[in-house]
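This follows on from our talk about sequence and fold. I would like you to pick a protein and set down its sequence and fold. Go ahead and set the record down below:
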Amino acid sequence: MSHVKLRPGESQDQLLKRFRKSIAKDGLLSTVRRKRWHVSKSELRRIQKKKAIRRARRKLRKNGR
């Protein structure tokens, strides 16, 4: 679990910014979003395959220009 302590002379905005950065670095938010709903393994594979195809098309389009 991430936590941050208030440094001397630090504003609440700076503290919040450091907390958000630590949460992003830990990958906590993406884990929560991913586990929000149950996704079966076959559904997960289908989604990953779809993303891979999309990435490949985007890369091909980018290199083709």
Summary: The helical segments are 12-26, 28-34, 41-64. The radius of gyration is 19 Å.
